[in-house]
Amino acid sequence: MATFKLIEYQDANPKFARSMTTLWPRARSTGINNFWKAIAHDPATLKRTWQSIKQIMAPGALDPLTKELLYVAVSVTNNCSYCIASHTASARNKGMTDAMFHELQAVIGMANETNKMVTGYQVEIDEQFKPPLGS
Question: 38-46 contacts: CB < 8 A, separation 24 or more?
Answer without folding.
Answer: 38/2, 38/3, 38/4, 38/6, 40/6, 40/7, 40/12, 40/16, 41/4, 41/7, 43/16, 43/19, 46/19
